[in-house]
Design brief:
Elements (H helix, E strand, L loop, with lengths): L1 H54 L1
Keywords: Membrane, Transmembrane, Transmembrane helix
Organism: Rothia dentocariosa
Protein name: Dihydrofolate reductase
């Protein structure tokens, strides 16, 4: 009984840790994706604006 309870607790802790790691990986991936969108947007907007300002 004790071993069974220990295994359930260990398994649950492993699942919690795996879930936390999975959530962290998803957060990092989402952050990288958002950063990519922001960088591409900034480049698409700022480069033409800077060229216009430079020409003036």
């Amino acid at each position: 009984m004790c071993a069974f309870a220990h295994r359930m607790v260990t398994g649950r802790a492993g699942a919690v840790i795996a879930g936390a790691v999975d959530a962290q990986v998803r957060a990092v991936a989402a952050g990288a994706y958002v950063a990519l969108i922001v960088v591409s947007f900034v480049l698409a907007v700022c480069v033409p604006v800077m060229q216009v300002v430079y020409m003036i």
